[in-house]
Sequence to fold (586 residues):
Amino acid sequence: MAAFFALPGSEALAIDLAELTASTCGALEVRHFPDGESYVRVRSEVAKQDVFLVCGLDSPDAKFLSLAFAARTIRSRGARSIGLIAPYLPYLRQDKAFHEGEAIASKIFADLLGHEFDRVITVDPHLHRYASLDAVYGIPTRVVRSAELIGEWVSENVDSALIVGPDSESAQWVEEIAHAADAPWTTFRKERRGDREVQLAAQSLEEWRDLMPVLVDDIVSSGATMVEGAKLLRTAGLQSPYCVAVHALFDDATGARIESLTRKFLTTDTVPNKYSHFRVAPLIAGQLSSDLA
Amino acid sequence: MAAFFALPGSEALAIDLAELTASTCGALEVRHFPDGESYVRVRSEVAKQDVFLVCGLDSPDAKFLSLAFAARTIRSRGARSIGLIAPYLPYLRQDKAFHEGEAIASKIFADLLGHEFDRVITVDPHLHRYASLDAVYGIPTRVVRSAELIGEWVSENVDSALIVGPDSESAQWVEEIAHAADAPWTTFRKERRGDREVQLAAQSLEEWRDLMPVLVDDIVSSGATMVEGAKLLRTAGLQSPYCVAVHALFDDATGARIESLTRKFLTTDTVPNKYSHFRVAPLIAGQLSSDLA
Fold:
């Protein structure tokens, strides 16, 4: 028997997952004392159950301790196993020491989570140099992909689409979306000049002038890549693009800026926001159902 | 050879400790990406050194991951040992499950720190049900006490002082201050009615009417205890008290409210603030010097 418990902000996803897998949703209380310390109380039975803690891990620093407190307390109360469902899994970008002395945050964060959980389930992890999450995580991982869902939406809603990825590292993922959309695809070349500044370039965009561009990216944070991409497409004579992101880490102002430059801006709900359109609960539930079967 | 590295906000203490112990201060870079993830880079040599990370752990949730990233990176670069100097050590209040299912945060937090550090040094830890930090921490701990420093200040600055503690649990500590001040002491009885509400009572304050009250507390957070204590002393016919706190976790408005009700409001600098008067660096340095000798 599986039971889902939500950390604050992930209640809707936990309820959806419980419904879709015919499981139960447990009660977890998380609040903060005036001095900022977290208070965690597990208010439902967990003994002998396979428990899943659901926690969107955007803003991971603020959430890690309460997540660890919940996991330890659930384990001490006799859960059979504890899985983490993190629709957005952070700390995958700092995957090596680019400069001497840098913390390899992806490895350390994976190790910290590995002490608390028996398995991790996530959506479209941002893997660059790693071929799979198993190269980072010592515990079993399950990856759910949104490419097909996005591709099908494009196929149904955009005539003569061209899928455009931000950089060569995204090629495989962009190709998956394009395949599901039955559309051609291309990528920019990207050069990052700082946390909030990128330079994009593209060869011969002109040949795609008659197509409707759909700019896709897995993570939108500062929004620099989406904004530059949309501008570059217009400069090359293409139409104002559709923009689709998986993980919405941007603030309201950035969302509005992207929306103003695009025909339509859509994201998944791994980080719930006003542009959330693609629901990941059915994808995660499908993975869980086959694992639990 | 010892080397001190500061997390953001603890730079002044690290520099003081390096000077007072004739050691070096290393460079640690900590910043945040636009999406909130922490970036940590150790910019000085640590190989074969006894390293001390200095980190005031008020707002612990926001700081834990960057602290862990720093500790792991320092260890991977060959430090001989890594100590944590946390002038304020958080998560000591939730030291048992008062209600079924509550996370025993003090034990879990101690265990998490114990994975990263070889030892912990702190000032006046808030111990209620535990007799010593060793009952919570699996790694060696060193406790520095500010009672003598506070008591000596009272002795030099307040005529006919009466040291007043907030509750019976503080009795031993209040007595230490009173001993150093060569002054009588008493405590209130305290009943906590919520995170931000307390009720204080006292017996026969009238007998102390000719003395100058010095209200002391180890942690001031919401300020409810100090405010109620100051009012109760006035109601009983005593003068507006001096107020002294060790760990200043309050916000600006609370500080101003306490200041308005008291003759003088002073704290230590374990959490630097505008009322910081008592410097803990010499106390910590004294402990370190005897440990390192």
The mean pLDDT of chain B is 94. Chain B touches chain A through 46 residues (CB under 8 Å). The CA atoms of residues 93 and 106 of chain B lie 7 Å apart.
